[in-house]
Every structure is written in C-alpha cells, then in structure tokens.
Amino acid sequence: MHPLMNPHEAGIGFFIIFVPEFYVHSEFQNERMDAKRVLFITQEITPYFSESEVAVICRDLPQGIQEQGREIRTFMPKYGSINERRNQLHEVIRLSGMNLIIDDTDHPLIIKVASIQSARMQVYFIDNDDLFYRKATVFDENDEGFVNNDERAIFYVRGVFETIKKLRWIPDVIHCHGWLTALAPLYLKRMYADDPCFSRTKVIYSIYENAFRCTIGKDMKKKLKQDGATDNDMKIIETPDFLSLTKLAIQFSDAVIQGAPEVDPELVAHVSNAGKHFLPYQSPEDYIGVYNEFYDTVMNSK
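^ thats the sequence. predicted structure below, dont judge the formating
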C-alpha cells in the first residue's frame, strides 16, 4: 500500500511538516526535498509519563527517526507530576524569560530540558507555574477536565513555536501527538503564516483513541480569535470537545496518520471529506520505517 492514500481507503493519524524557504528556491522546484529535521510535539513521553500508547510511541519514534539519519527535537509539557531531580531536568536560561499573553494575562514561559541517555536524545519541557503545577495532567481524580485546559493547550503550542524560533532550528517536519497538541496546525497556518521560519511548513497529526467527554473551555474560541483565528475557522469547534478539536486539527493539517488500531469512525470520515493525505495504522514492528518514508512523501506532495 502506498504511504499516501485517501482516508476512505484505510484508517487515521496526524503530523506537521516544515519546509524552510531556502529549500524551495525556483531552481529546486523540481528536485526531491527530504525531511532533514523533524520536530515532535507530544502530550506525553515515557519515562516522564505513564506508559500510555502515545507516551510509548513518542519515546521510541524520535529515537528511531534519529537513527535513520535525521535531526530531531522533542517537546512535551512539564506536568507537576514529573520529578525534576530524579529525571535530571534543568532550566535553559537563554530560552526562558518570555511572556505569552493569553486572554490579556501574561504567562511566563520556562524551558527545561532532560536527556534520555539510552536513546541519545534530549526532551524539551514547556513549563509555567500557573498552568502546569498540578500533579495531575489534564484531568482531576473524577476524570473532569481542568477548566483552564484551553489556556494550557494554547500556551503549550505557542511555547513550542517560540522556543524553536529562539533555537534557530527550523524543522522540515512537525509531527503532533495527543489532543493537547491539536491547535498546532491552526497556529502554523494562521498565527505563524507570515513567519519566514514556518512559511513552507506542512502539518501531520496522529490520531489516537484517547477521547474524553468534557468540553475543553467555553471561551476557547474567543482566545483563539484574539490570536488571529477567524470566525470561519471557529465554526468547527462550536462546542470545544475532543471530536471538534481533532476535526480542527485535521482541517489545518496536510496529512493525517492513524496512530491507534481503533479510532472514531467519524474522524476517519472527516479526513476523507477534507481530502487529506492519510496513512493507516501501522504495526509496532513496522511503523517507524513507514513514518520515516511518509515524511518525505508528504513534503514532496502538493
């Protein structure tokens, strides 16, 4: 099966791809462009998070892609449950210190980093004392979502992009995992559309079966519009919940990957209706190699 196919021919998943301007100069228009740098934005990674499906994939996939010869960077939120001393996190002073304004409130951006020695890779953590101090991640002990999950998602995605700009490490591909990253495609295509760092970026988003019933934040649409989203963009999230947020991510992505064996059929249908490139679910034995090829295929597609 070819790695680029229509969703009605298979399953679901999600990714983001950046193509820097100098790669698309007119003399290179007809040449193949490979994804030399891959940025992973994820909701969770083991060993910093319990071994969920997303956490395990986001631990193994970056290592596997790095071993394929590509440069990688990996980001996740710094939840209060992460023991900084045991995991040897330390703040990167030169990257910290910026304030991100969400709904007229300043939120200091703190960047921390740790190494997974066995994988020879670093993980960057987006932190803020007001948004990520809780021991729980996105739900309380009653499985109720935190009332400020919308602000946490906005802060996380913006924090990653601003940090990447400070690093001056412009990725060719960004791969997003988990609903907390679902705003990344919207921000790339709207809020960062005129930024030369991201002007040639393509987006891939992986969909998993990690749905929830609660709404994310009744004021999310207002906060996104303050950052540049349009009324038309917001129609799809009339009620901000898992399904509508995932559909928003699909709408602004260039490709979608089915990251789990089973996903909501409504999302599969939405991928098909949106005409997005689609990669069906891949077995644990094969997915790293197939994803690696998929990055290049999407980069070279129109």
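Residues 149-167 form the longest helix (19 residues).
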